[in-house]
Amino acid sequence: MSVAPHLLRPTRFVIDLDAVAENLRSVRRLVGAGRRIFAVVKAGGYGFGTLEMAEVFAVHGADALAFADLGDAIWARRQGVSLPILVFPSALPGAASEVIAHGLIPTLTDLDQARAYADAARGPCEAFVKVDAGLQRLGVAAEQAVEVIEAIAGLSPLRLGGVCTHLHAPPGADPAYVNWQFGRFTSVLEGLAGAGVEVPVRLAASSPLVMQHRHTYLSAVDPGSMLYGVPQSFATPPEVPLRPAFRALKARLISVKEVAPRERFAAEAPFPVQHRCGSASSRWGRPTGSGGSTTVASSCRDGRCPSWPRRRWSTRASTSPPSPTPSSATRSW
Predict the structure, then answer these.
(1) From CA 231, how far away is CA 103, in angstroms rounded?
(2) Residues linked to residue 255 through DSSP beta bridges, in sequence order
């Protein structure tokens, strides 16, 4: 017996699955059929739902998924996601056996991590290596990368599946700065080729690079925010229109009542009530997973006592399981 979504959850975050699919198709048109797309599903699919987004990407042509959190990647695999899953650097070496058991592809950043995976593997184990080309965060330093990656590639039973980097490309970045980082990365790739190390996947282009620096595509790309129509990555509107995954945030009133001024502790009230008025409540905030306080909207019958919530609320997506969907084009929870 089905239950209407608005009865299960009066406050709903409605996602446009068709928009996500179209954004992925836009990436494919940009990069061409010959390059692999690693669709990034980190942070719960940027707040739009890990499994929902993974399913859209699988159906509409992504070659693989990329996760920043090992727990999310394992959960997705257990839910039946069958695409190759690349896990960005996040897991401790002690988790190597779990990564391998779930058929995930780890991203390594040093030789010690590689040895942990080589020791845990009971058969061929694909792994990527990340190079720090300028972000000064995770990855093998570009100056040492050829030597380290060559050593990792020689560890049996590891199999070098790819070499990746994450370029620092904030909105409005000087192209010369981006090119300097990209040049450092391609120098590593050239050094590996000279050493006879085969690199099947060469990955450098995240969303800002896919949209604004097309020479960085190499053999694969890993778009994230652009797949969800999130514009913050771009100083100017992207050449390819992006459709927002966010469709609507809807709420229904769950209570309407009359509120009178307090005789005591009036200053401590959640919102000021100076005259008898009506109070209408909707379910927001922490109870729904949106990260803020429960909001109460009030209005006076005589128009004399405007009131407001004491604290603001935000619209971060809930991490609760999704409710039944009204159509194949939307997802609500």
Answers:
(1) 33
(2) 281
Which CATH class, in words, describes the domain spanning 17-245? alpha beta
Backbone region of residue 253 per phi and psi (left: phi > 0; alpha: psi in -120 to 50; beta: other values): beta
Q: What are phi and psi of 153, to 5 degrees?
A: -60, -20
To the nearest 10°, the Cα dihedral for 210, 213, 215, 218?
-30
Contact 16/329 with Cβ under 8 angstroms? yes
Alpha-carbon distance values, 102 to 70, 80, 160 (Å): 10, 11, 18
What is d(CA 212, CA 214) in angstroms, rounded to the nearest whole number? 6
What pLDDT was estimated at residue 292? 41
Residue owning tokens 């592809």: 105
* Residue 293 to residue 296: CA distance in whole angstroms: 9
Q: How far apart are CA 127 and CA 142, in angstroms?
A: 18
Kind plus residue range of the DSSP H or E element containing 175: helix 175-194
**Cα separation values, 165 from 53, 55, 105, 162, 234, Å:** 24, 26, 15, 10, 19
Tell me the C-alpha distance between 314 and 325, whole Å.
23
Separation CA 99–CA 91 (nearest Å): 9
Q: Is the dihedral of CA 70, 73, 79, 83 positive or negative?
A: negative
Hey, which residues does 160 pair with through a beta bridge?
127
CA distance 299 to 259: 10
pLDDT tens digits, residue range 283-328?
766 555 554 434 444 445 555 544 444 433 333 333 333 333 333 4
DSSP code string of 22-84? HHHHHHHHHH-TTSEEEEE-HHHHHTT-HHHHHHHHHHTT-SEEEES-HHHHHHHHHTT--S-
Q: What integer pLDDT is reported at residue 297 of this predicted model?
A: 44
